[in-house]
Amino acid sequence: MRLLYINFTLFLSLLMNITETSFINNLQETELTIVGNAKSVPTDMDLDQLKSVLKGEKLRWDDGSKVIIALMKTDTPIGMNTSKELFNMTGNQLNKHFLALVFQGKVKAPTFFDSEDELEAYVAHTPGAIGVIQKVNDAQLNTIMVVKSKLDNK
Q1: For the domain bounded by 28-152, which CATH number is listed?
Q2: How far apart are CA 74 and CA 80, in angstroms?
Q3: Reduced to 3 states, what is the DSSP secondary structure of residue 8?
């Protein structure tokens, strides 16, 4: 019986080591790029101001136009990374955060996207829109900030 216990313990130890190594190897440094509509979103924000906007605490830009938030869906790698790095939340916590704000009538829900191209096009053509992507492809967007982080690519 003792031999079975030792073999099982060794097996679990080996399995945990393989899983941890695989997880570490799947992490790679990446950048989150915060982009805004070129006509109405300022480019001179610090990280605290940016987080205030993205969390729905700031509702209007300095010119009076509404803040419109565009994010990748929280079940996408970029969405999960955005939740973790910019909001310090899991994807589910982020969804609940905005659900609570919408239910209280404080903000309009962010628009969530499956692809970066769709999000970029939306931000480029929507005055007051701000979003988070990995890489900018649209020249009509203002890059507000680039945040380096680790992205889990499993």
Answers
A1: 3.40.190.10
A2: 5
A3: helix
